[in-house]
Amino acid sequence: MSNVSTILKDLNFRFNKQFGQNFITDTNLLNAMVEDSGITSEDVVVEIGAGAGTLTRAIANVAKRVVAFEIDNNLREVLDLTLQGLDNVEVVFKDIMKVDDAELREIVGGDYKVVANLPYYITTPIIMRFLENEYQPNTLSIMVQKEVAERLVARPNTVDYGSITAVVDLYADTEITRIVGRNMFFPVPKVDSAVVKLSIIKDKYDCDKIAVKKIIKGAFAMRRKTLSNNMLQLGYHRELVESSILGAGLDIRVRGEVLGVPEFIKLNTLLKAGKVQ
Length: 277
Known about the structure:
Blueprint: H1 4-10, E1 23-24, H2 27-37, E2 44-48, H3 54-60, E3 65-69, H4 76-82, E4 89-92, H5 101-108, E5 113-117, H6 123-132, E6 139-145, H7 146-152, H8 163-169, E7 172-180, E8 185-186, E9 193-200, H9 209-219, H10 227-232, H11 238-247, H12 261-272
Parallel strand pairs: 2-3, 2-5, 3-4, 5-6
Antiparallel strand pairs: 1-8, 6-9, 7-9
Helix pairs in contact: 2-3, 8-9, 9-12, 11-12
């Protein structure tokens, strides 16, 4: 295969800022990302954003099959060249956010893993699209902005801990597998990145995830306010809120950032047992 940079130049490809395109060509890094993801020759992999096909090719060298979704039709010619000779890759030119579970299952067929170098602007929606839908992957190994990665793996009562941390923890265990400097991409972005692996655990917590997610988001709605005041904004009586917080073994002045998922689940159970205003 010719040098990817040369192919892009020869085809006069123009990077689209709308899609947050930043490609990786370093073979060692690409192979390391695939190794981090735990892909084997038995795995079907869904890649989000084929880009110039460099990560796609690295995955295809290991996986049984790769289904790569790409939103930019202008990359068709590029991918025809960079993925030439691979018979286990299917490129689907669709926005993954507009592909429902039924269509995805029809394309993929069964169990799968997700690998992606995600555009920064759509990181959270894509993560939640796979976590909250019924047809979940076994793992998601995603390249994201370093700052976002630190939020995803943060512990309660730390600066990086927030609603996205707790919501993701409802579904999966998370770990940062490597930090990637900005100079590994082209065009060079303004920030460093990191690879995060989300290992989905079926029924990790026995709870009403939709209800608990509402409590979590409410708890972080106004970060400087106490948990009690934030819960009032959800429509609960003050007496119920305060008794529930105390019943969960928490200080009445506690803020949401102190609670882990088990505490949010317990709080939700106590609140649901009372009356809503």
